[in-house]
Amino acid sequence: METNWNAGGAERIRRCNGCVCASKEEPEIQRVWIPNNDNSPGLAMSRSFGDFLLKNHGVIAVPDISYHPLSSSDQFIVLASDGVRDTCITECLSACKLQKKKR
């Protein structure tokens, strides 16, 4: 779930007549909605592979990629989606550190 929406994603969706807003049930989560369609589910991200309902409303499949140069002090690499990162990164890193101590 892309909780930290960058301005570009929300602007892109609005330019394509998509709607970006939170529901009353989950006011902390921004979602993409098909305009004038109360029966459609809201998508909680601006990038998605294979979402054919919202691709005409600015949802794209191009990933947001960042780079981090590795150094000799780096101990492990965690590859995860932002949804995993936002919900369980602390637990994942704690488990990795615990496994390293066991070696």
Keywords:
single chain; 103 residues; alpha+beta; 2 domains; 2 strands
What does this molecule look like?
By secondary structure, the protein is of the alpha+beta class. It folds into 2 domains: 7-57, no CATH class; 66-103, no CATH class. The chain has 2 helices and 2 strands. Strand 1 and strand 2 (30-33) form a beta hairpin. The radius of gyration is 17 Å and the shape is elongated.
Give the gist of this structure.
By secondary structure, the protein is α+β, with helices and mostly antiparallel strands. The protein has helices spanning 7-15, 82-102; strands spanning 19-22, 30-33.
Shape descriptor reads elongated
Spans with pLDDT under 50 lasting ≥5 residues? none
State the share of residues found in helices, binned by percent: 25-40%
| Biggest β-sheet description | 2 strands, antiparallel
Number of structural domains = 2
In terms of quaternary structure, the protein is single chain
- Count every helix, treating DSSP H or I runs of 4 or more residues as helices: 2
**Per DSSP, what share of the residues sits in E-state strands of 2 or more residues?**
5-15%
Number of strands: 2
The mean pLDDT is 79
Reading the helices and strands in chain order gives: HEEH
Q: Termini, distance in Å?
A: 34 Å
